[in-house]
Amino acid sequence: MTARMSQTRKRRMPVGLPGHLLGTMAVVVAWSAGIAGGAPSAIAADVQSKQWYLSAMQAEEMWKVTTGEGIKVAVIDTGVNPSTPSLKGQVLKGFDATGADGDEYDDYAGHGTDMAELIAGTGKGGGLQGLAPGAKIIPFRVTDTEFQNKHSVNAKDTEDAIRAAADSDARIISMSMASDFPGRGEREAVKYAESKGKLFFAGVGNNAEEGNKEQFPASYPQVVGVASADRDGKVAEYSQNGNIVDIAAPGNEIPRWCDSKFQSYCDGDGGTSAATAIASASAALVWSAHPDWTANQVLNVLFDTAGRDWEKGTLSKYLGHGLIRPSMNVLKGKGNPGAPDISPLTKEKTSGSSASPAASAPGSSQPQKKETADDAVMAGSSNEKDDGSSLGLIIGGAAAVVVLGGGAFVLIRKRRTA
Question: Pairing mode, if any, of strands 95-96 and 72-77?
């Protein structure tokens, strides 16, 4: 287990996984598995060719329309190294909430840099290719348990980072970190981010086999909870499930930096960490194509066009609204954006801001429990036969049956990776 993945946190940990875990859910909705073309360098052949989801999600075709230009993504994590070949020129000034030595560019675990590359990496130098390479990253550094044990730190780092991200000109907040424990300050910070028009994604966690506890911030009603799926559209056995899940994105078999030395990439599962980054990049593509939309409208379209084989608007406890498919909007113009000021998460009125730096009045909506159907994810053929996408549905399996595999992710303290 790498240092990045073995760390436990007082409050939350990155939600990636170190090894390839083979168990899957029997409730599946699959995208066609495509392999991205190999790049000339040896490193690229080892890394970019393994980013199978780029082909499956029709990345090359989408990049002819938009690369996510004009969109900034706040990455709340272990820091982001702006000097990797794939991130040079992609990382802006952010905020270090740790209260310790160093700054937001000092990634002490390598995890935050992974997430940034998956979102906006250019792929230069054979590095990870981001799904939205035209987007920019604003890093916000927070702590984990190992870091806290070695340094004097800010106990309110997470809520401070969320508020700072809300006050930045990032439109999207991506947080691949999770905790078993909610906090009043963090909850209020999340509500504040919603009031500023931000679209907030967080991993649901990789602890399905170890209690499947509700995770935060993904469980807050204003946050999009992201589950992890493999190249067949199967939900990984480690990916937590329940009413916390809003959507699923690729998370299995995704390369990552081996450690904070940034010398080489390792194989393994990115977990719901990677899924969160890819979901955030998907939103960046859609928002870039429709810059006048609000966060609510972007999310409405992602939910509306998600791959599924059940009634639209009904949530699966494993896949939420389904598999994320930005190409359905970017390439085909599908998806109903809906009302600009109604949240598709809470169904309540929001400020409707398009996430400009100007502050909006904090929202007054009360948190609501995320609701799911009676886990009625039925196997069958797709109702979306005409999408022409390599993410078309290939349905198999039975309803609500979990096949558990090996490879547990153990929570030791409060903070852990999503």
Answer: unpaired
Q: What is the DSSP letter of 128?
A: P
Tokens describing residue 187: 């909850």
d(C-alpha 179, C-alpha 22), whole Å: 24
Q: Read off the pTM.
A: 0.81
pLDDT tens digits, one per residue of 217-254: 999 999 999 999 999 999 999 999 999 999 999 999 99
| Residues in Cβ contact with 59 at an 8 Å cutoff, skipping those fewer than 6 apart | 36, 129, 131
Structure tokens belonging to residue 36: 């991205």
Q: How many Cα neighbours within 13 Å face the side chain of 14?
A: 37
| Token pair recorded at residue 129 | 């290719």
DSSP H/E element including 415: strand 415-417
- Looking at CATH, the fold of the domain delimited by 3-417 is given as Rossmann fold (3.40.50)
CA–CA gap between residue 52 and residue 232 (Å, rounded): 11
Q: Which of 144, 196, 203, 132 is nearest to 418 (CA)?
A: 203
The domain spans of the chain are 3-417
